[in-house]
Specification:
five-stranded mixed beta sheet; 3 helices
Length: about 110
């Protein structure tokens, strides 16, 4: 399965309002089940992470971890995921972030 991007402001607001909150070491995730056929992901990072370069790098790492998690274990799911990157993500190894992403998807399985 392929992870799509969650882009519309109204969809992101719906995830914030109705989504289930999950907290991991490198990120916070809000997950909302949908009636669609794909997993849509939006990644945000606040200025607490540092410069624009640091924020973008952290977002890319977390987005890639979720892309891999969806490809390996997200078959049959339909949900919107809003991920807020935490400052801990800068120092966390990629393998750990990837394991946390897979753990997050497994927690919301039926």
């Amino acid at each position: 399965m392929r992870a799509a991007r969650l882009r519309r402001t109204a969809d992101i607001a719906a995830v914030r309002a109705e989504g289930r909150s999950l907290r991991k070491g490198a990120f916070n995730a809000r997950v909302r089940r949908t009636g669609g056929t794909e997993i849509r992901i939006a990644v945000t990072a606040s200025r607490q992470l540092g410069s624009a370069v640091a924020r973008n790098r952290a977002r890319r790492r977390v987005r890639e971890a979720f892309r891999r998690a969806v490809a390996s274990g997200g078959a049959g799911l339909s949900m919107d995921v809003l991920i807020t990157v935490r400052p801990e993500a800068r120092a966390t190894e990629f393998r750990t972030i990837e394991a946390e992403a897979l753990s997050t998807l497994r927690q919301v399985l039926p």
